[in-house]
Amino acid sequence: MEITETNLDGVLVLEPRVFGDERGFFMETFNQQVFNERVGEVTFVQDNHSKSSKGVLRGLHFQDPQAQGKLVRVTVGAVYDVAVDIRPESPSFGKWFGLELTADNKKQLWIPAGLAHGFLTLQDNTEFLYKCTDFYAPHYDNTLMWNDPELAIEWPKLNVDYQLSEKDQAGKLLGEFYQVVK
Q1: What is the CATH number of domain 2-177?
Q2: What counts of helices (H) and strands (E) characterise the chain?
Q3: Residues in Cβ contact with 100 at an 8 Å cutoff, skipping those fewer than 6 apart
């Protein structure tokens, strides 16, 4: 597995080795021993799977307290995946990282606990899977505004309007959660 660091402290791009031939392909998507050695020791307690139409924007979600680390990937279709560092003590606080994850490129993104996460589906019938290091806790669930001007995330332009849930439309600015220091 190839692992690449990003501009956010602890956020990593994982590219599994893919063995393919005329019959199809095989790849190991997760190995606890390799993950512990190469990324760090974590325990995953919950797997989630979503399916979305093109233009669905989910996020930017985080739990505080009871933050979740997430290992995310796409099995059908494509997304533009975004992590935002909201750890006030982090050198990359207030910065974001975006990456296209597709069924074809088979890349995965490791997002450690303490970051907000969201994605925009780039194709219809996209299926998104992610492993979490802590359980979903609705009473700790928060939403950071997907288009916060302070963050200036460069979401891809699509030929359809973005579709957001009521919860995601009501997200708050980073400065409403944390003191932003320039």
Answers
A1: 2.60.120.10
A2: 3, 13
A3: 78, 79, 80, 81, 122
- What pLDDT sits at residue 4? 96
The pLDDT value given to residue 23: 92
Strands 126-132 and 70-76, bridge-based pairing:
antiparallel
pLDDT digits (tens, 9 = 90+) for 101-117: 999 999 999 999 999 99
Kindly list the catalytic residues: 61, 130
DSSP 171: -
The structure's pTM equals: 0.93
Q: How many residues does the chain have?
A: 182
Report the C-alpha gap between 93 and 48 in whole angstroms: 27
**Measured distance CA(7)–CA(115) in Å, rounded:** 13
Q: What are the pLDDT digits (tens) for 159-178?
A: 999 999 999 999 999 999 98
Residue with tokens 């030929």: 159
For the chain, domain boundaries: 2-177
Q: Contact, 48 vs 95, CB < 8 A?
A: no
Do 81 and 101 form a contact (C-beta atoms < 8 A)?
A: yes
